Amino acid sequence: MKLYRCTLSPKSSFATPLKGDTIFGHLCWMISYKFGNEKLKLLLDSYKKDKPFLIVSDGFAKGYLPKPNMPSCYLDEDSSCKKENRKKIWLTIQDLQNGNYKNAKKESVVNKNRDKEESVVKNSINYKTFTTTKGDFAPYTSKEYFLNDKDIYFLLDQEQLSLDEFNKVLELFAMHGYGKDISTGKGRFKLNNLEEIYLNFNSKAFMTLSPSAINTSDDIENLFYEPFVRFGKFGGKWVYYNAFKKPILFANSAAVVDFKEAKERKFFGQAITNIALSDNPEQSQSVQQGYSILFPLKDLECKQ
To answer: For the segment 61-112, what is each residue's pLDDT rounded down to a tens digit?
Structure first.
């Protein structure tokens, strides 16, 4: 598997955060639209057998990765300055590889025009009266995200999905849009500069780049993470059935996995199946990304 990175340049506000499992779901729909359901089914069959054809990261500040989510003593931070430490969330790839966690930067330093999250008041129209009324047609609020350029990482198995095929999938994805309310102009973007990234994946400690489903069969010595509950929904034609998925408990992005021994590892986690609430046979075959790309770290050392 090879690691790639591209830059997502927003052209509108977004109604859905850029999380790896959600992006993966969109790309599965694009594969189905571009190459047919049989191609997607073949890829997902391998995905369920611990042979993922593709793993997608969250969207990160351009040129940076998140600070690992582990106790302050491993980050060499002053534990008496917890409030200040929590604001320092971004590290360059070089600092992360070298374990220079003290060089973490605040969002205001990395992005002068900081990402913003706003609540927007909307109305539903009752087309019998052509007015807003009570109940379902009352005003409501919806979150919108105004983002700067983001780096997204892809771990691709070219034996299952070629780079040429993947590029065509990304082109279709950029035309289609991302997340909720794309029909009203939200989630519009451009993808730039898909490039291969070379890392030494032989390590004992790693950081995850998206939400992951912990695989207890892995030989783990330490695991540090914040829980993240995904209340997912189906997209595409399946929104006309019961669109809701079962809630899934993840280890959120930037979790730190410390294995008992060093060896080459590129991903962590497992595929998640049986996520549909309805009895629709097609939905019952769906898969949620529970894998995460691993970023190698230096061996963990508690300095306090």
So the answer is: 999 999 999 988 888 887 778 888 888 899 999 999 998 988 889 888 888 7
Give the other-Cβ count within 10 Å of 294's Cβ.
25
Q: Which of 261, 257, 221, 229 is nearest to 245 (CA)?
A: 229
**Measured CA distances, 125 to 136, 143, 144 (Å):** 9, 19, 20
The pLDDT tens digits of the residues spanning 99-151 come to 898 888 988 888 877 788 887 777 777 777 777 777 766 777 778 888 899 99
Give exposure, 258-292, as e/b (b: 16+ Cβ within 10 Å): bbeeeeebbbbbbbbeebbeeeeeebeebbbbbbb
Beta-carbon contacts of 212 under 8 Å, excluding residues fewer than 6 positions away, are: 250, 251, 255, 268, 269, 290, 291, 292
Tokens describing residue 121: 């008041």
Rounded to whole angstroms, the Cα distance separating 22 from 11 reads 19
Residue 88, CA distances (Å) to 81, 104, 228 in order: 11, 5, 20
Give the separation between CA 275 and CA 92, rounded to whole angstroms.
Answer: 36
Residue 232 half-sphere exposure toward CB, CA atoms < 13 A: 32
Cβ count within 10 A of residue 223: 16
Please list the residues that pair with 208 across neighbouring strands.
294
**pLDDT tens digits for range 228-268:** 999 988 877 777 677 888 899 999 999 999 999 999 999 99
How confident is the model at residue 152, as a pLDDT? 97
Going 190 to 195 to 199 to 204, the CA torsion angle's sign is positive
Residue 121 sits at the vertex; the CA angle it makes with 119 and 123, to the nearest 5 degrees, is 145
Question: Tokens at residue 138, please?
Answer: 């009352």
Phi-psi region of 130 (alpha: psi -120 to 50; beta: other; left: phi over 0): left
| 28-52 tens-digit pLDDT | 999 999 999 999 999 999 999 899 9
